[in-house]
Amino acid sequence: MLSRLFNPDSVAVIGASRKKGKVGNAVLSNLVKDFRGNIYPVNPGEEKIEDLTCYASILDVADDVDLAVVVVPAKVVPPMLEECGRAGVKYVVVISAGFKEAGVEGAKLERRSLEICKEYGIHMVGPNCLGIMDPVAGLNASFAASMAYEGNIAMMSQSGAICTSTLDWAEANGMGFSKFVSLGNKADLGENEFLTEFRDDPSTSVIAAYLEGIKNGAQFIEFARDVSRKKPVVLVKSGRTAAGSRAVSSHTGTLAGSDQAYNAAFDKAGVIRADTLEDMLDYIRAFSTQPIPAGRRIAILTNAGGLGILTADACYYEGLELASLSTETIEGLRKFLPGAASFYNPVDVLGDASAKLYGDALEIVLKDPNVDGVILLTSPQAMTDVASIAKVVIQKMENSDKPVLCSFVGGTRIMEGNSILVAGGVPNYTFPERAVASMGALCDYGKRRNMVYPLPKPVHSDRKTASELLDEAAAKDKKILGLESFDLLKAYGIPVVEIGKASTVEEAVEESERIGYPVVMKVLSPDISHKTDVGGIRLSLMNKDDVRRAYHTMMSDVGRYMPSARITGVQLQRMIEGGREVIIGMNRDVQFGPLLMFGLGGTYVEILKDVSFRLAPLNEKDAHSMISSIRSYPLLTGVRGEKAYDVDAVADVLVRVSRLVEDFPQVLEFEINPLMVLPEDEGCFAMDMRLTLKESN
Amino acid sequence: MASILVSSSENYSGKSSICSGLGLILKERGKSVGYMKPVGNLLVDVDGVLSDEDAEQMRDLLSLETPRSCITPIMLTENLTNDALLGVEKHLDETLKQAYSEVSRDKDMVIIEGEGGIGSGAMYNLSDPQVASILDSKILLITRFDSVSAVDRILCDIELIDDRNMLSGIILNEVEEDKSGIVRDMVVPFLEKKGVKVFGVIPRDHTLGAVSIAEIVEDLRGDVLTGRQEMDKLVEHYLVGAMEINSAIKYFRRSPNNVVVTGGDRADIQMAAIEAGARALILTGNLRPSEAVLGSADEAGVVVVLVRGDTLSTIERMENLIGHARIQQKTKIETIVRLIEENVDVDSILDSAGL
User: What number is the ipTM of this complex?
Assistant: First the structure.
């Protein structure tokens, strides 16, 4: 869809300038340097710039213009876009600042600009951006200091300054790009459009992105998942902490969103999240040059024992396995390595190893069917010929379909070797841990690429009843539903504990007799969320007298602790013993919709924070992985001879909750707390619930 | 001459609302209505004449031509209280009677609004029962039913009325939905058994406590940074944005159409409020928000107001403003009339007042 944006036949620069130091001059001279098509400077005050005829308006250009780069002050951007529209231009890059980032007037200009684009069917990059580059097509429509090297990385960034830094870093590290986009304010084109564009771009093999927010979360997941099947997407999303998200809001006028939701979204989309800019650059270096490993079994090849051990530790933390080398490999190594060498993983070729020895060892290890990838370490010891080792690594790699990442650890003495590796397309990392992390990213992608996402099985539910229940609550202007709404759970096939409701003490006794002792009594109030804190729960009531006393003391306690609470009565439940309490929750994320939470229940849940998150819709596999990914999962599978609990029943409830909250977007928050899980095959029961409804207008 | 004095147990029980509503209903029924607030306690300067805010509103609402000095013949000034304490005889009962004869001229019915609580004005012999006795009016007592203790209050208030025949009856106001059962099944029968006529039970309506953003801006003396065209919108609650961002989003969106008070430097909270559908942002500490946030607020039609005060003092003012709103907007008056028509036995009130 955007191919003409990156590969136009002709480009106009609206606001071109002859004055050095002006953006309008930088953009024009960047274009002149590399672009092979026609260039039309537009500026009513000039006749010629850089030997090119200057036009007073884009409407004066007789030929068709594919792309217009706009660098005029913000307030004249809308009329310029209007002229572009009338001239039939379909792609514009608006570099000018002074839009939404600059306040109310700017926001109006941005809206107006977008309207004009929509009216004429123009696709717009920016505003407030550095521009775009396509080194393959020779297009540098930016005011960056120089053109990027040609390569296979497509990069987009919401920050212009990160573009500049990345370009400079890449130049120093011999890294090249297929496409480079500064997204700016993302008024029209954003990450989702470029993801799709890069997916279909034959010169791109890895996609990198720096983002501060995502415009359309659901679409992002859909697109990124699709793209990730074809090529890796590595991204940094900043604004993860309270301080960071405040800075994002202040900088872009958007909500940074919850980091848990972003993590869940990236997981769902198969995207590789880099924690830092450095991580991202490390990873894309590996992705742009190395094949994807088939598994996580890594061999370490080193001339220094200490580096080998550090790397082995790092592999463990990264979740990589140290490969068990095959007998053939070990025997093969024994033939030429000195007796003091280590033939097991990490393979230590010893400090005096020659380049030939390194090369032979690498060749044998790469051939081992138990090895999925190699991390090659070198310390510049007295006898070490770093440059020759670098050359031999490049040579051996050519015949292999497994990734090799190097870490030549040192300073001046490894410089030459580093340059040779970089030129030969082998990533070299200053320290082993960085090589390990990058190998981890390659392995993660290997797994994600082949991930299947089965659709959730349909849930049999009585949607009509649930809908009526919620409508009724909305009609009464009720915003918080509690225990009294168990019918909602029942409608979705979620098992609930036997309950009764009472608004007087005698009704409470009656209901308790019906349910059967022991019973639990809980206060019913839309204003009370933590019942324990206000004395709103009484356990183990064994007879009528217990129930009466509990009722009177509860009313008195609640009245004292929360005099303003509206109390509608009490609920009585059959007390269930011998189970484990878990929590299932949902919070509707601003960008990504329902974010489900699972954790172990009880009083300590808020302190331990041992919870897992997934975005709806959940299939059974997601539900099981959600349950098993909490740290205290062993408590559910049975510790020290305990019985296992009915995890399948919990997974089923998770899937049903996911369906429920997807069916009713008016549900903002939802929680079953606790869900009592009984031993295997005995099921689970919701003991309490709380649901927040959106105000209906 | 029919007349009724609308009294209440406490301030902010809804006296003014009920006076307005009754007045309009009577007018609609073709009656000529007079209004009087004997002691003005909400003093305002109207073109150099001291008047009472309630009185001014009623004057407008019922298009009264009676002179201000008759509608509110006595002003609650320092002179009044000092003289009362010093025992200076001012013959206020005479002043009152004269004004009343003016107010009631050619009228079918006069509505008299009490000063504050039922006992207010006792120091200068003008508590509500004393005024009623001077003017020979019946008393209609309005009580906010916040809990069962309102019953204590009602019985106690009635003790203040010497001649029980002077009590026309009561209205229970602002009854929360969860209490309506108890009120209907137990409280009303109890009071009736005690010989107290209950004319109506009016449910709480949250829209009545709402204030317009313009009123807030005026009260806080704030600077409007954007969204000026949205200032007529009403807000029912204010929320304070002092928590971490994820809790803030949850908290704000539970009740949209609100005003959020937060610091000018809390861009995350500001964006959460805009996202959650807040109507206005009050930014404290005179800290200007980021331009990008202003741009987003403008797009979303959210009013952004900058105030000098810190968050705490701003909240205190807001507390005073919201819920104690004076009834001015047309929509609110319509709501009041509807609530009275639906829940109050107006005919019986008029009967007991002698109309």
Answer: 0.80
Domain locations in chain B?
2-206+326-353, 211-321
Task: Quote the CA–CA distance of A342 and A309 in Å, as a whole number.
Answer: 12
Say yes or no: do domains A3-286 and A580-693 share a fold: no
Q: What is the mean pLDDT of residues B293-302?
A: 93
Per-residue model confidence (pLDDT) at position B9: 86
Q: Which of B245, B255, B292 sits opposite A101 (nearest CB)?
A: B292
Model pLDDT, residue A535: 84
The reply to whether B178 touches chain A by the CB within 8 Å rule is yes
**CATH code at A580-693:** 3.30.470.20
Considering the four listed CATH numbers 3.40.1390.20, 2.170.150.20, 3.30.70.20, 3.90.930.1, the one that applies to the domain covering B211-321 is 3.40.1390.20
Q: Pick the residue from chain B with its C-alpha nearest to A256.
A: B268
Closest to A622 (Cα-Cα) out of A585, A583, A593, A651:
A651
pLDDT in tens, A9-53: 999 999 999 999 999 999 999 999 999 999 999 999 999 998 899
d(CA A502, CA B177): 17
pLDDT interval class at A214 (50, 70, 90): very high
Which numeric CATH code is attached to A498-574? 3.30.1490.20
- Going by C-alpha positions, the residue among A570, A568, A561, A600 that lies closest to residue A583 is A600
Is the minimum CB–CB distance between B184 and chain A shorter than 8 Å? no
Of A99, A253, A694, the CB nearest to B271: A253
Gap from B318 CA to chain A (nearest CA, Å): 20
Sketch the domain layout of chain A as residue ranges.
3-286, 290-449, 498-574, 580-693
Residue B259 β-bridge partners: B238, B280
Three-class DSSP labels, A402-461:
CCEEEEECCCHHHHHHHHHHHHCCCCECCCHHHHHHHHHHHHHHHHHHCCCCCCCCCCCC
**pLDDT over 90 (residue B318):** no
Residue A553, Cβ neighbours under 10 Å: how many?
Answer: 12
**Fold for the domain defined by A290-449:** Rossmann fold (3.40.50)
Could you give the dihedral angle defined by the CA atoms of residues A594, A600, A601 and A602, in that order, rounded to the nearest 10 degrees?
Answer: -150
**Which has the higher per-residue pLDDT, A515 or A577?**
A515
CA-wise closest residue to A373 among A435, A432, A312, A296: A296
Interatomic CA distance for residues A478 and A472, integer angstroms: 9
* Interface membership of B110 toward A (CB under 8 Å): no
Interacting residues of B77 by C-beta distance below 8 A, sequence separation 6+: B43
A5 near A123, Cβ under 8 Å?
yes
The verdict on a CB contact (< 8 Å) between A247 and B267 is yes
| CATH class assigned to A3-286 | alpha beta
- Whether A694 and B290 lie within 8 Å, measured CB to CB: no
Whether the CB of B299 is below 8 Å from some CB of chain A: the reply is yes
Chain A residues whose C-beta is within 8 A of a chain B C-beta are 99-104, 106-108, 110-111, 242, 245-256, 258, 476, 479-480, 563, 566-568, 587, 590, 668-669, 692, 694-695, 697
CB distance A431 to A409 below 8 Å: yes
Cβ–Cβ gap A103/B292 under 8 Å:
yes
For A259, name the nearest residue in chain B, comparing CA atoms only: B246
| B294 part of contact set with chain A, CB < 8 Å | yes
Residue A138 region, left (φ>0) first, then alpha (ψ -120 to 50), else beta? left
Per-residue pLDDT reduced to its tens digit, A360-405: 999 999 999 999 999 999 999 988 999 999 999 999 998 899 999 9
The verdict on a CB contact (< 8 Å) between B299 and A587 is no
Calpha distance A631→B335 (Å, rounded): 56
Assign domain B2-206+326-353 to its CATH architecture: 3-Layer(aba) Sandwich (3.40)
Cα B340 to Cα A123: distance, rounded to the nearest angstrom: 58
